[in-house]
Fold these 4 entries.
Entry 1:
Amino acid sequence: MNFTNLSERIKQSPPVDFGAVFNNSVTLFQKVWLQGFVTLVLTFVSILPFYLVIYAPMIAFGITDPGTLRHNQMPPVFSLFMIVFMPIFMLAVMTISLCLNAAFLRMCRKYDLREIGKDDYFFYFKKEYLKKAFMVSLVMLGLSFLGVLACGLGIIYLVVPMSLFPAFFAFDRELSAMEVVKASFALGNKNWLMIFLLVTVAGLVSQLGVILCFVGVLFTAMFSKIPIYFIYKDAVGISMDV
């Protein structure tokens, strides 16, 4: 679906129904909780090397000069390294997370519509998607930075449209990176309050796994992503092209 048709569907879409989206999310979660767990584990494993790159120099400095860490003083070289590498680190993490979240939403479609096929967690790591994921993540990083500059209040507003990025990225192959962003803002702005409530409540529910000795949260955390699938589905329909 091209951007013009998609924009028209968003304009004509009915308001988001909190009850319907939440109830459907609970039902679907019972079918995809394992896929959510695997997605979360893959996310942790994928970003682990980047954390090692950040902390390895710190550990090395601590071994060679223990007094450095004891007095909370880091060499200028390390500070410069952090300034240069941190944006790259954040961009890499966002790109990986976007691709894995999009794959999870694609699996949500599979189990919701009872499609036949394997669970492909790395579907969006193909070259044709990876470049677009990088560009969307770059925009997300820039928006996050601007949101922080606005005393953090901007982040609250941006939570809604940015939470929709994975859905438009996953199901609308024809869209460019900027069109993914524009479509997300269009749908997000139209239903901002209801989507914000859904994202907030789903986020709280997803943390209930903490009750099970904290390990359970690994199985419930991805529940917070499922309402996005139904918000998108109810607004513009689900594309079967990907």
Note: The chain has a mean pLDDT of 88.
Entry 2:
Amino acid sequence: MVDDGLAGFVYRSGRWKFQEEPLERFVRWALEEQLVSAEVLPRYRRVYLVVDGEQRRFRRDRWWTSQKSIADQGRHEVMRQRQDAARVEREARQKEQEEAAERRRREVEEQERARKAEEAERRRLEREEEARLRLEEARRRWAEEAERRERERAEREARLAREQAKREEQERQDLETARAWWGRLSPQQQTELFTAVAEYAWRESSVRVGVPEKPMMWPQYARGVPVHVADKRRTLYGIVRPSPDLVAACPTLAEELVLARNAHEARELAAVLPQGRIVHLYLPEHEQLTVC
């Protein structure tokens, strides 16, 4: 029995298969050239056989076989080569398609990146332009505000200067008026006046008032001279000879005791201070008029 070296090619499975034949038949087929020694192509050199219930693998590179099996192996090899070529072509085509798809994907990604970069740049430029416009607007407002403040400062300074000049002029005029008013009295008459004020305060109010050595004309009392009680608090007692022409600028004078030299001065003061407490000290008028 020949159980190795003889095989037939099964086209459907694409494999060689062991064949067992009696030795006499094998020899007859060989002599009749129905069997020839054939080379096994590399793809088909593995062959399987069940031995003792276990499938085992063998490797053979030559068989005794028929011309038909050799032809079937050749046809199968051609078919496999066509399949391999088709597979290679299919894989190449698939690879090319995948590469093309990858290129398209990258192109789309690149276009998207470019679009996003362009959009980001556009937004950045817009933000810069908006910031520039805001800064220009802020600078314009700052300049306008600075100009307004400078204008207001100049106007305020001009107004203050005018007011100061007006006050100084008024002060000068008031001082001239007061000097003219007090200039009616000689130094002796002024001394006589303040002595009479002290006597009046003691006689009428039982208080002693301080007689100023150098009488000071106070603007808030219409350039009259204030006299104070000779106590610790120096309470204001009255105002001596406020100028009638300056009384209108001193409304609080109506609340104070006003002391005039004589009836003539009292009438002058009463004309501009109708609600005031005015008393005169009965000093002679002719001496005063003579001095004037």
Note: Residues 287-292 have pLDDT under 50 and may be disordered.
Entry 3:
Amino acid sequence: MTTRICYSIAFLTGIGLLFIGLRFLISPVKAEFDYGIFTNTNQDYSFHYIKGIRDLFSGILLLFLVWTRERRALGIVLLSATVVPLGDFMIVMGKNGSDWQHAIAHLIAIAICVITGPVLLLQKTKKSSSDKQISFNLIRSAADGGPTIAECDLLPGAKTPWHYHTLFSEKFEVLEGELEVGKAGKRYQLKSGDEIVILANETHLFYNRSESMCRIRTTIEPGNIPFEQASLILLGLAKDGFTNRNGIPKKLSDLALFIYLNNSKMTGAMKIAELFLSFVAKIAINMGRLKVLEDTYCKPARRIIS
């Protein structure tokens, strides 16, 4: 529960930084006033724009770490970032004396960093997903003609952000357990025997909220070989201990390649992260990381991981 609260605070902080960054880009004078200082720039707002871009980056970084549930990395970033609001506070107070009206926001930011950072770092690591038995069975490949059909296990806590695919539709059939599926803004609670169809370009997510494994059959139409590769790679990484407890690859390059291969398109603020991950994926491909993953996890002999 404590970790979840810290994630929520970090998420809201990331959203706040995005807002501040955009404000310095769109309305630099008002943003500067709310920051607590005023300088005569003769209508030259270059430094305001520079600050805005840096705040946008900081917000995206926090949101990305929250999304990937990188608890330790998020804790380190928040704790080390204490120097930023501390410096801001000293600048505002040094320039305006007792201007507590504007300084209070910087004090709140300091408190967020010095409290949530250590709390995240001191939380005990829970049992890794890779310690649990998982399986993936590619029943029918697009290489054989027709749709891609696969059965896989979703670990407790496994989930995705809102996203969509442009190249294919998906049908989820719950074989065992329970699964929450979001579709076009609505959420559905599926149990064994239930199924749902997600059309191409339709935003969706899934989340195994239960404490038990959920087994599903996924049908991809038209069949998609890169999607099959992404699934085999992800399950192989999980089996070998290279994912976190929510089944997300620990290496940024592996995460980027997974998203690239399975044609996942993000929504909202995560669209910016998608552009960054697409860039990382291209670098990983050029450096041969994709070939290594394919050779390790996508051979026919390893289509069934159990």
Note: The chain has two domains: 2-122, 129-305.
Entry 4:
Amino acid sequence: MKPSALTTGCCAVLVLAGCGSTAPPTAGSSPVVPGAMQAQPQSQPAPYKAEEIEAMVAPIALYPDALLSQVLMASTYPLEVALAARWVKAHPGVKGDAAVKAVQNESWDVSVKSLVAFPQILEPMGDKLDWTQKLGDAFLARQKDVLDAVQRLRARAQQAGHLKSGPQQTVTVETAGAAQQTIVRIEPANPEVIYVPVYDPAIVYGGWGYAGYPYYYWPPYGAYYPGDAVGSGIAWGIGLAAAVAIFGNCDWNNGGVHVEHHKATNIDRNFDASKFQGGRWQHDARHRQGVAYRDHATREKFGRSTADAAVRDGFRGRDAAGGRDNGFQGVDRGGSAVQRNTSRGNASLQSGSARAAGVGGGARMGGFGGRGGRR
């Protein structure tokens, strides 16, 4: 009996359906997609070591607690620090509370605005943007470790006889928590007048034991410390009437910083207290102005908080077109690009506009100067 045409056709279809087919993958095997590119994990920078963090906070560890907290907050917004430092240099006669009132309409974060009251802090932060950015990166990633480093240095300064109460400050020591942690607090002797100490860390801390991690240091800026020298300890300079500029404090027990809402509103009329649950400070990625975050964890945590994809790529330190690291990048207040010039030994802020060029001119990024145990 001959097969029918229908039977023959069905067999042909079944044969053709099997042509070119491959056997299913065996258990445990992985299918290979031709031409597929396997994603390579991005290398991550090593976490900062405790000694490295101590070197970063060495020049500010003896600041009054409230002022220290505001420096730490502001360091997470290095581009706005550069702009504010430029404003301070352009207005040398405006200091203290008067300076804070003068910048109320600026778009900077409240922590950055508060520091215009203290040009002897803001100018070095603007001149040493590499340090400012590193400090901010460390604080974003490891707030408790940064505050613990401050406490270790304060204990050493006390042991060396250089940290004690006086006309400029009140120093108190207490123990707290189940571990009976020793906490050294520093507050202004007069809440209405704030003194900013400047010192050589190798002297006030009784030496520097980390040869691999030189401490950061800058000498007193003459305009703010007339006649003062740090050879024998601490230079105090001129006290500033700047009570209005103080709105933060250190939470030594829990390893963070706090914000007093009603005081922050006096500095920034647009301050949004709803973003600070329980008064605990939260980093605001909008004020990062496109400066790249250092590591994957902070990029993922803060880079996602902006709705604009192009800006988000900038926050994550990526060039969306080429996938490259864009370094220190952002925009100036006129909308022009500001980014790191990596072709020079000491990188600086560069811009196509005269306004940002002014920022770059006074914002050299590099070491703090000095040799041996400091930089």
Note: The CA atoms of residues 25 and 31 lie 7 Å apart.
